[in-house]
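Hi R.,

Here's the chain you asked about this morning:
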Amino acid sequence: MNWGKGIVAGMAMFMLFIIFMCVRMFALPADEYDHHYYEKGLNFDKDYAKEKQVVTDHAQPAIQVNGKLVNITFTAPATGSIKFIRPSSQALDKTFPINTELDRVANVSATSLVKGRWHIVLEWQSNRKPYLYEKEVDIE
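And here is the predicted structure, written out as tokens:
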């Protein structure tokens, strides 16, 4: 094999590599980023203040997963919502309302949730103060 054939073969291999990478790049789903990043950025300070309020008031809720039931024990009566976020699929995300009267315990049925790791976002109000708490749990 002479120089000319080697250079042409090298260029052909490089072009095939570039074409392969372009096809692979366009085959990936386009929604790998958060479409609401700007709104979340604007609300970051509010969320940070709510998370700090949990630490200040020692209001961290106790979260226990018992089979298909999630028990959340608050330090005071609370109203708000719990959001189950599935890291692998946004279509599986679920939100449930929370309203604890006097018992301070909220029970959420996890029968509609698939098994695996979930990111829980608790947003509630207690004693007229807003709170935000996040935790990773495994649903079995």
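One quick note: DSSP finds three helices and seven strands in the chain.

Cheers,
M.
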